[in-house]
Amino acid sequence: MTAHTPTDRLLRTNPGATEAVVDEFRERALPLAEQLTGKGFRDQWEALAGLGVLQVGSSEQTPEKADAPGPVTRSLAMVEGIGLAGVDPGVVYALASQVFGMQYPLRAVLPPDAWRSLAPLQDGRVLLCHALTERKGGSDPLSMDTRARRDGDGYVLDGAKTFITAAPVADLALVFARTEEKRSPFALSAFLFPVDAPGVARADAFAKTALPGVPMGELAFTGVRLSADRRIGAEGSGLAVLSSTTTWERALLLGYALGPMRRTLARLTEWAAGREHFGRRMGASHQVAARLSDMALALYRSRVLLYGMAARLDAGTPTRRLSAEAALTKISVSEDYVRLTGHATALSGVRAFIADSELPADLHSPMAALTYAGPNDLLRVGVAREFGLPVEN
Ligand SMILES: Cc1cc2nc3c(=O)[nH]c(=O)nc-3n(C[C@H](O)[C@H](O)[C@H](O)COP(=O)(O)OP(=O)(O)OC[C@H]3O[C@@H](n4cnc5c(N)ncnc54)[C@H](O)[C@@H]3O)c2cc1C
Predict the structure, then answer these.
(1) What are the structural domains, with CATH classification, of the chain?
(2) How far is residue 333 from each of residues 37, 151, 260, 314, measured CA to CA in Å?
(3) DSSP calls for 12-29
(4) Is the CB of 135 under 6 A from ligand 1?
(5) Which side of the chain, N or C, has fewer Cβ within a 10 Å radius?
(6) Whose CA is nearest to atom 26 of ligand 1?
(7) pLDDT digits (tens, 9 = 90+) for 195-239
């Protein structure tokens, strides 16, 4: 039986069956969170996949179980639960990235046989990375240099992708490449192939300061021969595939942050309630109390937005109709994650900067959320464009 803190009780905004999934996965991940400390990324990945976090299910709703969460909501609740158990945030981020940014969108575009052949993704035996960004930038996909040239029935791929989450350990890569020289919406195609294919080289991992629990690296392609069935969808549909993967990602990837945000709020509430300061308890200060309320507001808003997106996707709303909402959700949750971390850092004093203190702060990981899945500055431009403003990136 899960013990709920007062902040937990205040923030339980979902139907009981959804909150029960969060609690269940928190309970199941708790022993793993401890056992896995210090283990390699791949060991942690497989152990957590064993809980079923990568299973992309179908609806369990029946007339008797009308409030059962839909599959996307259930995935989000599982991710929140394992984050709440204290599993390394980098590993939870990577799980959320594969489930929401790759598995769900691939299931929507692949023919049923091709999707079935990817079954090992769902039990953690095969790991996938999303390779879009190149050295000179990530925000402008139409400027990419990686090219797939037609060669007989297939393609030959040359180029390089960098800053790719999990590239040093992935088995399969979803790679976006230019199949047309012009800067047109049909210039790109998406390919899915093994990272150990001849001509693919992995560079060493970067020393990353945000989310250090998941490695990030580079993939270089030299004359990689790909059969046509490695292409996802029609030639020229790469930008459409990309807008689906990025909409899913913007809608839900930050579900990984809900666990760390809740843990931080609970820790700081306990600290402020118990610590003696100026001859009274720290939480007796209105300013301290207001900071904690602002942290709760950031978490409350993030949770409502993320579960709202999950509900829209469970209802079958096409991703092309969700791009602005997904961008707004990503902007709001990432900025609330930064805001909550800022308040926690202020309330923790020097302890925030001491790695083995009771209140160490991770400032890099929340800040990184302002950049990945589309920098917030550029997402704001895109949202305004959807309003009809004549604004381009
Ligand atoms: C933790 C993490 C994980 C990542 N994982 C992956 C991954 O798995 N796969 C992958 O492909 N990539 C990944 N990336 C890379 C990420 O997708 C890119 O960082 C992102 O697309 C932005 O590209 P950029 O860093 O080159 O920023 P830029 O495009 O250089 O933008 C940086 C900033 O420049 C300013 N700017 C530039 N142009 C404009 C403009 N026209 N209007 C307004 N502002 C502007 C904005 O302030 C913007 O925030 C990851 C990044 C991080 C931090």
Answers:
(1) 128-244 (2.40.110.10)
(2) 27, 44, 13, 20
(3) --S-HHHHHHHHHHHHHH
(4) no
(5) N
(6) 137
(7) 999 999 998 899 999 999 999 999 999 999 999 999 999 999 999
